[in-house]
Design goal:
single chain, alpha+beta, DNA Polymerase III, Chain A, domain 2, 3 domains, elongated
């Protein structure tokens, strides 16, 4: 026997790190998890060559060494066993045999020496932020990241430290999201890094139920974060994020403030009959009144109205309803403010009294 471990001791770290596992990758070993045992500590590692996850737990063993196992299959085995089960691992030629009670599994292994670990990881600066602030900023920006865009610098999140602020910014070419928090910048750090999409998603998962300070270690090519026994190291996107400040509209002469719940429900109702491809809805704004209209190629139409606070007397504009719903859902307020320069300009969506979260949506022509 190589080692034995309680099911829950293995299941928790596997759940933390299996999100980066390549399910249909070209490199078979990336579908495996690397087991590294040193004395009584077990380190589990997964990687997709861009993001590397490590999780640590204790183990009962005299074995010292490494092996790999298929990550998703091992995770499903752990999930299927009863609570409190003891799992015993042993090697048989090129297979690892797992026994637990009357259950027996034989999994194929691959050479541990072939597992590709991130190299040359250097970090030079550390930023500490409480998990609740970081979680809020991610929630308010993560939905706006591009996916597989040829403009590779959009396929991730801008993390910026400047003066007394930490900002997260994302954009996909049609919309932009910015969220910020105050930061005591004693070291005078001024830095921008671009974290790839998968790294951002894993970070968001790591801090979801955590209430503690998070140390973010910044380097030239990598970022590293450790939370409750799980460490994520991610390569950075080598590119320059667009000047987001120029995208955020200024000097807007027109705005309205709406009840968030009423607006969301009206948008969802009209969205039912909006064009399935473009999801466009039209806003007709008049004195203290917002009319929302949608239609589709089958000549079907939907219309809804809500009362709003506004000085606009007559204005029409249009937007992707999905983008609007994404934006208003992350505003932490009972009310939401929409601001416009003119009917053909982008729209700024924010809290009526704060600027810590700003969302920009480009208009449609319908």
């Amino acid at each position: 026997m190589l080692f034995k471990i309680q099911r829950e001791q293995l299941l928790a770290p596997l759940n933390q790190i299996c999100g980066v596992v390549e399910k249909k990758g070209t490199l078979p070993i990336l579908s495996h998890v690397l087991f590294s045992i040193n004395e009584d500590e077990l380190r589990l590692t997964t990687s997709d060559l861009e993001v590397e996850m490590n999780s640590f737990t204790s183990v009962d063993t005299e074995f010292q060494g490494e092996m790999t196992l298929p990550a998703q299959k091992l995770l499903e085995i752990c999930k299927s066993l009863p609570d409190g089960s003891i799992m015993e691992f042993s090697l048989d030629d090129n297979h690892c045999v797992i026994k637990s009670g009357d259950s027996r599994f034989s999994l194929s292994t691959l050479p541990a020496n072939d597992y590709p670990l991130l190299e040359d990881v250097e970090t030079f600066e550390t930023v500490t932020i409480h998990s609740t602030h970081l979680s809020r900023m991610l929630k308010q920006t993560i939905f706006c990241m591009a996916s597989h865009d040829v403009r590779y610098f959009l396929n991730g999140l801008l993390f910026e430290i400047l003066n007394d602020k930490i900002r997260c910014v994302s954009a996909d070419g049609h919309r932009l999201a910015l969220s910020e928090t105050d930061y005591v910048n004693q070291a005078g750090i001024s830095k921008q890094i671009l974290i790839p999409r998968k790294g951002v998603m894993e970070l968001n998962k790591m801090i979801r139920d955590v209430d503690q300070d998070i140390a973010i270690h910044l380097g030239k090519n990598h970022v590293s974060i450790e939370v409750e026994g799980t460490q994520m190291t991610s390569k950075l996107i080598d590119g320059k994020f667009p000047d987001y400040q120029t995208v955020i509209p200024l000097d807007m002469e027109n705005d309205f403030i709406a009840d968030k719940v009423q607006l969301e429900r009206a948008l969802r109702r009209v969205a039912i009959l909006s064009n399935e491809q473009y999801k466009g809805v039209k806003f007709k704004i008049s004195t203290n009144h917002l009319q929302i209209l949608g239609h589709n190629p089958d000549q079907e139409q939907a219309e809804d109205s809500i009362e709003v606070q506004t000085s606009i007397t007559d204005m029409e504009t249009a937007f992707n309803v999905g983008y609007l719903l994404d934006a208003i859902n992350v505003i932490e307020s009972d009310q939401v403010q929409f601001s416009f320069k003119d009917p053909l300009s982008s729209c700024l969506i924010k809290h009526p009294d704060r600027l810590d979260c700003r969302l920009v949506v480009m208009p449609l022509r319908i």
